[in-house]
Amino acid sequence: MRYISTRGGVSPVTFSEAVMMGLATDGGLLLPDRIPTVDGQTLAKWSQLSFPDLAKEVIGLFMEEDDIPASDLAKLVDRSFASFSHPEVTPVVSVGDRYILELFHGPTLAFKDVALQFLGNLFEYILAKKGGQLNIIGATSGDTGSAAIHGVRGRAGIKIFILHPRGRVSPIQERQMTTVQDDNVYNIAIEGTFDDGQAIVKQLFNDLDFKESYQLGAVNSINWARILAQIVYYFYAWGQVGKSTLQPVTFSVPTGNFGDIFAGYMAHRMGLPVEKLLLATNRNDILSRFFNTGTYQAGEVFSTISPSMDIQVSSNFERYLYYLLDEDSAQVKELMEQFSQEGSFGVSDAVLAKSKPLISARAISEKETKETISSVYKKDNYLLDPHTAVGVCAAEGIVGAICLATAHPAKFGQAVMDASGQEPELPLPLQGVMERPTRCQILPASFDHVRNHIKKVLD
Ligand SMILES: *Cc1c(COP(=O)(O)O)cnc(C)c1O
């Protein structure tokens, strides 16, 4: 299997090369050159496997033995999911008339750990094999930064620099990043906003001299390995509730950058019996507008109580668009270029109609989100975090739907408390986090200051 770009401008690369490339060099996103499929017998067999053993099967289909041998992959997978606090890694629980797929038992209590624990191990393995260093740089509004730090802390050959806006992430999120004491972790609090941080990181990557001499890399959600790790839990959840009867199920997915739901789409293409994928957004509804009207148009970004979904441009959407347009990379390129110039593009009704049998999209208001947290707590005695509540609300009335729980309620304790009157209990990894010593460099929100700081560390 080789990897190609959605925009057609990259000669096919191996899985390892795709992981190190991140964003395709032609500006597109990398995808496998074919989608492996599995039959009913395999699905039945897979439904009996533990999460790590299933991960070895699913992930192994996407790489060649002479790139990453199965025995090495097995070790990487075991190491990646040993950091989860639940023995099932991603357990499915029955709550009222739906299921909740709990994806928040990793070290930072968000579903991003599933992918970033794997990616951290993978980076370390590939670097050890081919030699070299990787310096990861990213800006965060909270969740991704901490999951990335915990994914690569203490890993050989890797340093990570994460910029967060000083005083503008939640106290817990800040401590999850700054209390990490490993030498290869560098927190930078900038005196500015998340957008300032993002702009500085973009400028660093555009400084090609700097990028080359210091081996800069990114961990954002466009890395193929992140999608790949997320495919696993769709199969796992189906196995837990379908009991190998080949019955299709509906998944409800709180969506921002379209990474999580794209993994569900891939699982479906591989042969998983999926009835529907419910795409649930908060008030930032670019995706639900696309799936309901065929127009992809960026709007204003609103702050909500589900901040990890407060985005307007959805970085993984291009992967889905590629398949929706029957793998016509020239057309993808044209539409994405139109989007970057004009801020919007549209597809025909005939093209949009092809998405309908599988994907239904809905934007959920703040009021609906709070009501869902409150009513599920009252009726079913289960506390939802605000992101998960968006997905649960979108699945209302669909008996047996599997709703992806993307964060632990304690991560967004104040919003959960306001909606339900109940304060979520702090789980073990967070207990005492506010008292631990911190490490963090405070800098002005200036490109030069950040660049000089990173240079000083690396020289
Ligand atoms: C990142 C995130 C999402 C959105 O996932 P995408 O893959 O970007 O669609 C939803 N919920 C939480 C808690 C997140 O951290």
Low-confidence segments, given as residue ranges, are none
Count of alpha and pi helical runs: 19
What small molecules does this complex bind? pyridoxal-5'-phosphate
Percent range of helical residues: 40-55%
* DSSP strand count: 15
Q: Judging by the overall fold, what is the CATH architecture of one domain?
A: 3-Layer(aba) Sandwich
What's the N-to-C terminus distance?
38 Å
Tell me the name of the CATH class of one domain: Alpha Beta
What spatial form do the alpha-carbon principal axes imply?
globular
pLDDT average, as an integer? 94
Strand content: 15-25%
Note down, in words, how this protein is organized.
- The protein is α/β, with parallel strands linked by helices and 459 residues long.
- It has a domain at 92-108 and 225-427: Rossmann fold (3-Layer(aba) Sandwich).
- It is built from 19 helices and 15 strands.
- The protein has helices at residues 15-21, 40-46, 51-60, 70-81, 112-130, 143-152, 171-178, 194-206, 208-213, 224-242, 259-270, 286-293, 317-324, 329-342, 349-355, 366-380, 386-394, 413-420, 447-458; strands spanning 3-5, 30-32, 92-95, 98-102, 134-139, 158-165, 185-191, 216-217, 249-254, 274-281, 295-297, 344-346, 359-363, 402-405, 441-444.
- The strands form four sheets. It has a six-stranded mixed beta sheet, sandwiched between helices. It has a five-stranded parallel beta sheet with strand order 8-5-6-7-15, sandwiched between helices.
- A hairpin with a 2-residue loop joins strand 3 and strand 4.
- Helix 3 (51-60) crosses helix 4, helix 3 packs across helix 10 (224-242) and helix 4 (70-81) packs across helix 5 (112-130).
- The longest helix has 19 residues, at 112-130.
- The radius of gyration is 21 Å and the shape is globular.
- The mean pLDDT is 94.
- The structure holds pyridoxal-5'-phosphate.
- Pyridoxal-5'-phosphate is lined by residues 110, 112, 143, 221, 254-260, 308-309, 387, 406-407.
